[in-house]
Amino acid sequence: MKILLVICDGMADRPAGALKGMTPLEAAEVPNMDRLAREGQTGLMDVIAPGTVPGSDTAHLALLGYDPREVYTGRGPFEAAGEGVEVRKGDVAFRCNFSTVDGKMNVTDRRAGRISKGTHELAAAVNGMKIEDVQVIFKEGVDHRAVLVLRGPGLSPKVTEVDPHHEGKVLISKALAPEAEKTARILNEFTRKSYEILSKHPVNLARAKEGKAPANIALARGSGSPPEVPSFSEHHNGLKGTAIVGISLVRGLCRLSGLDVPDVKGATGSTDTDVQAKAEAAAAALKTHDFVLLHFKGPDLYGHDGDAPGKAAFIEKIDAAISGFVALDNTIVCITADHSTPCSVKDHASDPVPLLVWGKGLRHDLTDCFSELEAASGGLGHIRGHELMGMLTGLAGRNPKFGA
After folding, report:
1. 401 lies in a domain?
2. What one-character DSSP code corresponds to residue 105?
3. Does 152 lie in the same domain as 24?
């Protein structure tokens, strides 16, 4: 059987006052998810481990069947790969923000007024510089985001960040191990030079005239080197997979694991994404691939904003888009989240996420609908994230026998 894994990013939640004490998933009208839950099985999943708050990167590693405690090397390489920047063995990659600082290197706006235009020109001005014997590769992402790759001999990702994550003084990167002294030195020099170049750039001079915050520095965080892991196909007995995803982090992670990652028109990785186009792309991919990952970022964004009604409404959009999956032949359908993003917290939390698995001819339990509470009594029990793919490939009849 084939496998369709639908990840509703950050969908799991806690009771919300704005929804009369229901979670967004409980409050949402989701007839398609409810039907799959009634006809299939549900359960709960600690994506990393009980009590551990998953990052988006470590969570998706786990859901693809890798143990993040063993293979995680930092977020930077995934962001870079997601933006189409090659990350080689020995490189050190970072995620970056175009930010605004004053003359004393105090951060006044980490997102440079949420800049959305002119970042290509700004990135081009910084890209290609050489610091000592290290090449700088810099590329803009969506809005204020960007990626930085350092390429040269003797580099290590074991350095601290220069991004303070809030208003305040730009940090000085420090080595966390002796072999990282060079990397910290290069990163600090890059930060200084980015300010020197960007503060004089025509894009920022024009922004200043318009009263907008200049994107006059690039602040790096999330250092990492490419993880050395088997490809998704090797890890799962030759399974040929693809990912329908808009957000650069997950696109990059999937690319580095060897999944096909096609471009889908309208897939923005935000709340304005074309959910129907993504669902149709997933349906088409099932004709040519054994495994399809279908990712929706919207619920997580509403969770970070604390908007429970908006989150419920977006979950309803997802449910409408997947209506064609309730009668698939020869396919295991799994719907879950990569982590909880409670609207009351406005950030990731360690709460387990609901999970449903459906396929024609498989067992079903007594689940009546799909929600966090209902899933707690489902037949799948309570699993961990890196166990999910093994369970799905087993149900799909793709695992070899263990023993005689």
Report:
1. no
2. -
3. no
SS (H, E, C) 14-65: CCEHHHCCECHHHHCCCHHHHHHHHHCEEEEEECCCCCCCCCHHHHHHHHCC
CA neighbours closer than 13 Å in the CB half-sphere of residue 135: 8
pLDDT tens track for 49-81:
999 999 999 999 999 999 999 888 888 988 898
Q: How many domains, in total, are found in the chain?
A: 2
What residue has token string 């490809």?
231
| E-strand stretches of 81-170 | 92-101, 106-109, 130-131, 134-140, 145-151, 168-169
Last residue of a domain, one of 224, 247, 263: 224
Is the pLDDT confidence value at 228 over 90? Answer: no
pLDDT of residue 250: 93
Q: In Å, what is the CA distance from 136 to each residue of 15, 84, 262, 398?
A: 47, 15, 27, 44
| 232 and 220 within one domain | no
Distances (CA, A) of 287 to 232, 234, 242, 266: 19, 21, 11, 21
Residue 165 lies in a domain: yes
Burial class of residue 237, CB neighbours in 10 A (0-12, 13-18, 19+): exposed
Residue 402 lies in a domain: no
Per the document, the length of the chain is 404
What secondary structure does DSSP assign to 192-235, as a single string? HHHHHHHTT-HHHHHHHHTTPPP--EEEEEEEE-------HHHH
Binning pLDDT at 50, 70 and 90, where does residue 341 land? very high
pLDDT tens profile 23-51: 999 999 999 999 999 999 999 999 999 99
| pLDDT, tens digit, 9 for 90 and up, residues 299-324 | 999 999 999 999 999 999 999 999 99
In terms of DSSP bridges, do strands 291-296 and 2-8 run parallel, antiparallel, or are they unpaired? parallel
Same domain, 372 and 334: yes
pLDDT band at 114 (very low <50, low <70, confident <90, very high): confident
276 and 183 together in one domain: no
CATH number at residue 348: 3.40.720.10
User: Is there a domain that residue 342 lies in?
Assistant: yes
Domain boundary among 224, 245, 272: 224
Dihedral over Cα of 276, 3, 246, 167: its sign: positive
| Contact between 146 and 138 (Cβ < 8 Å) | yes
Average pLDDT over residues 129-142: 94
Tokens at 161, concatenated: 């960040």
